[in-house]
Specification:
The chain is an alpha/beta fold. It is built from 14 helices and 5 strands. The protein has helices at about 5-20, 35-50, 65-70, 90-100, 125-135, 155, 170-180, 185-190, 195-225, 230-235, 240-260, 270-280, 280-295, 305-320; strands at about 25-30, 75-80, 110-115, 140-145, 160-165. Strands 2-3-4-1-5 form a 5-stranded parallel β-sheet, sandwiched between helices. Strand 3 (about 110-115), helix 5 and strand 4 (about 140-145) form a beta-alpha-beta unit. Helix 10 (about 230-235) packs across helix 14 and helix 11 (about 240-260) packs antiparallel against helix 13. Bound molecules: zinc ion.
Length: about 325
């Protein structure tokens, strides 16, 4: 979606597009974690759409092209990003891209490419991209995305139309975050993220992961007799009951599944030791699952959080003892 703080930029771009002025290369700049890639994707989708809205220039969301785009299988669209654990975009990635843009297109419309973060092109990759920018294929749009355009070689920068996407105001960031189902207080997250909404969301998710891992560790300590039920329950009574149960139900489900499949499947958030301790008897796992589901029906009752958490932990205890 086009975020509210990007609306003015979208409108200025749309003005040109309504008169058929769309640059063949656009460089989207602006601070990190403020939705530049979202903007780029909305633009790509609308460029490919077979019947976009003339006034808003937004994609129709109904045509074949739009559904192909949403399914990440549009034949006239591709994107280039950093490969996993790599700090640079390498020349082979740009060569593949060049092949793509000079191929004949599948549909009547444009061909669209997103490259992000474009300042991470290594020197060979940058030179290879430069050639494409110098001789742009017909009806092809390259959308380059960068938080640090000063790190780009000037010859690339000068061949693109620049569009600077701003950081949202604090109020805009707050409003966006209220729609995101966060665990932590919005203002705390926003302060930690220096006002950048997508970073605030990421921090919340990381914290959530840490919390989940900690719960698995505490349950393991309980089962090994290193902590008592009361101790663990006191630590966790402040976390919403529904969250606690959902995490555990996911773990138990994945343990049951891997038990049937005979795979060593394991989620990131569950301690491997807990996994090994519990996943040996599938009937125990089913009993634990049923117990947790039963407890789920008490989420909204007046059962005190401490008592609720104690009951929850006792379910694990019981199954680990009856192995
Ligand atoms: Zn469409």
């Amino acid at each position: 979606m086009i975020h509210p703080w990007q609306q003015a930029c979208w409108e200025s771009l749309s003005q040109g597009r309504r008169q058929n002025h769309m640059p063949h290369a656009l460089l989207l700049t602006g601070p990190e974690y403020c939705g530049k890639l979202d903007f780029a994707r909305v633009l790509a989708k609308s460029l490919l759409c077979e019947s976009r809205d003339v006034s808003s220039q937004l994609a129709c969301d109904q045509c074949k092209s739009c559904s192909l785009f949403e399914a990440s299988s549009h034949p006239d669209y591709t994107s280039v990003h950093l490969a996993e654990k790599k700090s640079q975009i390498v020349v082979d990635q740009i060569r593949a891209l060049n092949e793509f843009v000079y191929l004949s297109r599948s549909y009547e419309g444009s061909r669209v490419v997103i490259i992000a973060p474009v300042e991470r092109l290594n020197i060979n990759a940058a030179n290879s991209l430069l050639k494409t920018l110098e001789e742009p294929p017909e009806k092809t749009v390259l959308i380059l995305v960068s938080s640090n355009p000063s790190e780009l070689i000037p010859t690339i920068r000068s061949r693109c139309q620049l569009l600077h996407l701003p950081q949202p105001t604090l109020e805009q960031a707050r409003q966006w975050l209220t729609k995101q189902a966060l665990e932590n207080p919005i203002d705390e997250l926003l302060t930690a993220a220096a006002g950048k909404p997508m970073l605030a969301k990421q921090l919340d998710e990381e914290e959530r992961l840490t919390t989940r891992k900690q719960l698995a560790t505490d349950i393991l300590k309980l089962l090994r007799g290193n902590l008592s039920v009361v101790n663990v329950a006191k630590t966790w009574e402040k976390i919403p009951k529904a969250d606690l149960l959902d995490w555990q139900l996911q773990w138990v489900q994945s343990m049951i599944r891997s038990n049937y499949l005979g795979e060593d499947e394991m989620t990131d958030t569950i301690s491997p030791h807990l996994y090994r301790l519990m996943s040996q008897s599938v009937s125990n796992l089913w009993e634990l699952y049923d117990g947790l589901m039963e407890l789920k029906s008490h989420v909204h009752t007046s059962l005190s959080p401490l008592l609720f958490t104690e009951n929850m932990l006792l379910l694990w205890h019981k199954q680990s003892l009856s192995r």
